[in-house]
């Protein structure tokens, strides 16, 4: 990794990255809500932003001067792969101003009929100046992503694949193993199911380079639904709403 990339990643060490994402069918949606989320994160002292879609990435970059993890969520009925699923999507994220491109690097099959992780090598070749973050769901997927050129691995999709769909919270043991075994070959960032400052601090203690938090900070409708889920005696599962597909395309 070159010095410029290392400097950017080192600027996020032991800090909070806030995921500032909103979909048009979310109850909190307004045209500028993602920007307001990012401005609030910067005011609070966050070290980075994670944002979805070229449109929202550009809008945030105009107002907020923090490293940007960019992705482009595109849903299809025939697959659970939705995070930056194509080279064109990766290019749009990069051209919008992202410093880091997040890709689904699981073994799930994409709308185009290939394993999601296959895109990593293509993006690495076509956009060599980009830092690539591999969103994975298992230790094995993280290892494969690093072997194929990922600069960062994060268990973002733990709980969102068929293999891990039963989970309720973060897998700290998997995180610790990743931090121990991959420390010399990639940055390990914790993302997924972190809801309190104490949870985030556990991840830093276990060796995570930084921690990404989204729903607990920027998605109040899902925070409320977690409370309702418990207070109603678990009659419905709030994660069904969290996992819902948006703007399905064919």
Automatic annotation (TrEMBL):
The lineage of its organism: Bacteria, Bacillati, Bacillota, Tissierellia, Tissierellales. GO terms for biological process: N-acetylmannosamine catabolic process; N-acetylneuraminate catabolic process. This is N-acylglucosamine-6-phosphate 2-epimerase. SUPFAM superfamilies: Ribulose-phoshate binding barrel. Its EC number is 5.1.3.9. Pathway: Amino-sugar metabolism; N-acetylneuraminate degradation; D-fructose 6-phosphate from N-acetylneuraminate: step 3/5. It is an enzyme of class 5 (isomerase). InterPro entries: Aldolase_TIM, NanE, RibuloseP-bd_barrel. GO terms for cellular component: cytosol. GO terms for molecular function: N-acylglucosamine-6-phosphate 2-epimerase activity. Belongs to the NanE family. Converts N-acetylmannosamine-6-phosphate (ManNAc-6-P) to N-acetylglucosamine-6-phosphate (GlcNAc-6-P). It comes from Acidilutibacter cellobiosedens. It catalyses: an N-acyl-D-glucosamine 6-phosphate = an N-acyl-D-mannosamine 6-phosphate. Pfam families: NanE.
């Amino acid at each position: 990794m070159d010095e410029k990339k290392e400097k950017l990643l080192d600027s996020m060490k032991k800090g909070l990255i806030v995921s500032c994402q909103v979909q048009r069918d979310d109850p909190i949606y307004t045209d500028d809500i993602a920007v307001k989320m990012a401005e609030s994160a910067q005011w609070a002292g966050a070290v980075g932003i994670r944002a979805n879609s070229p449109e929202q990435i550009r809008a945030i970059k105009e107002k907020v001067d923090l490293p940007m993890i960019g992705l482009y969520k595109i849903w299809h009925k025939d697959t659970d792969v939705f995070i930056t699923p194509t080279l064109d999507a990766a290019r749009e994220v990069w051209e919008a101003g992202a410093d880091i491109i997040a890709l689904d690097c699981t073994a799930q099959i994409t709308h185009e009929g290939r394993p999601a992780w296959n895109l990593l090598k293509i993006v690495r070749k076509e956009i060599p100046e980009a830092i690539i973050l591999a969103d994975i769901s298992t230790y094995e997927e993280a290892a494969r992503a690093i072997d194929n050129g990922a600069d960062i691995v994060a268990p973002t999709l733990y709980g969102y694949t068929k293999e891990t769909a039963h989970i309720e919270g973060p897998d700290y043991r998997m995180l610790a193993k990743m931090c121990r075994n991959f420390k010399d070959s990639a940055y390990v960032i914790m993302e997924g199911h972190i809801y309190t400052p104490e949870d985030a601090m556990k991840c830093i203690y276990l060796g995570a380079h930084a921690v990404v938090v989204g729903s607990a900070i920027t998605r109040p409708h899902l925070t409320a639904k977690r409370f309702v889920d418990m207070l109603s005696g678990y009659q419905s599962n709030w994660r069904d709403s969290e996992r819902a597909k948006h703007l399905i395309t064919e």
